[in-house]
Amino acid sequence: MKIGLYGTENKESTHVVMLQLMELLKNRGVEVYIYDKFKELSNNSVKGTFKTKMDIVGKLDYILSVGGDGTFLNSATLVGDSGIPVLGINTGRLGFLANVSVENIQENVNMLIEGKFSIDPRSLIALKTKNNIFGDLNFALNEIAIHKKDSSSMVIIHVEIDGQFLNSYWADGLIISTPTGSTAYSLSCGGPILVPRNNSFIITPKAAHNLNIRPIVLPDDVEIKLTVEGRDNEFLVSLDSRSEALAYTEELIVTLASFNLNMIRPEGSTFFNTMRSKLHWGIDKRN
């Protein structure tokens, strides 16, 4: 078995977990590869390093993402359409995606090696623009978001669904979320929570000027066309944590991506367990 260790934050807490994983995996006879950013941690437990998708396709069986949910989102861009499953180990704060706690690393890694896990395929959302501004990384696990560039003025976002006009949103921006992203940015702006296997998109406005505007859930087999107006020369579009500035003449086409991200779910772990734990459902602070 060949497993890659991935991270983004070169700090002590990440280093401690990386070293712990190296030792644990080596003792179980696993070939360990480490992300190039952390090559200074390499020891006799490490077989080699990797940096891009080309370094891991056909070479690694699994990726362990060490960090928070942001690190997990970045691992999705690394893995791309390779299909390599990813397990998130949480050294951050909330941990919806990176939901394996540091305290339970050994137990969960043993489950992975022994095959006691399931694959939870997560749908991705894709963006098409005339100039292909995001290149081969034109997809997101959580959401595509439109943002105003100037903090003092709104933007107007015109939305069509399969060629039919939906609405013009006067707002600070607009979020188009996957079910995975329903517990992220969209939720903070009042969007609903969807279970991961729900084949849907959520359109959620950010601080809408029209107070009767509410989020809407759409099937994910639609094509969403966006055009933006505003007082500035440009607006911002983001795919998860990656952002680019676009001119108002640019048209955005949003669709379901042609591939999924395979998320590893250890035995006994469920979406509902994670949601109850992270959102503190069932906890009454009055008692």
Element layout with pairings:
Elements: E1 2-6, H1 12-27, E2 31-35, E3 46-50, E4 62-67, H2 69-79, E5 86-90, E6 100-101, H3 105-113, E7 117-128, E8 139-140, E9 143-148, E10 155-161, E11 164-171, E12 173-177, H4 185-188, E13 200-206, E14 216-219, E15 224-230, E16 234-239, E17 242-247, E18 252-266, H5 271-279
Parallel strand pairs: 1-2, 1-4, 2-3, 4-5, 5-6
Antiparallel strand pairs: 7-8, 7-18, 9-12, 9-16, 10-11, 10-15, 12-13, 13-14, 15-18, 16-17
At the fourth CATH level, what is the homologous superfamily of the largest domain?
A: Probable inorganic polyphosphate/atp-NAD kinase, domain 2
Portion in beta strands: 35-45%
**Distance between the amino and carboxyl termini:** 48 Å
> So what's the CATH class of the largest domain?
Mainly Beta
Instruction: Note the total helix count.
Output: 5
Q: What's the pLDDT, averaged over the residues?
A: 91
Structural class: alpha/beta
Q: What is CATH's topology name of the largest domain?
A: Tumour Suppressor Smad4
What's the shape? Answer: globular
CATH architecture of the largest domain: Sandwich
Percent helix among the residues?
Answer: 10-25%
Helices and strands, in order, run as EHEEEHEEHEEEEEEHEEEEEEH
Radius of gyration: 20 Å
Could you give a short account of the major beta sheet?
6 strands, parallel
> Looking across the biggest beta sheet, what order are the strands in?
3-2-1-4-5-6
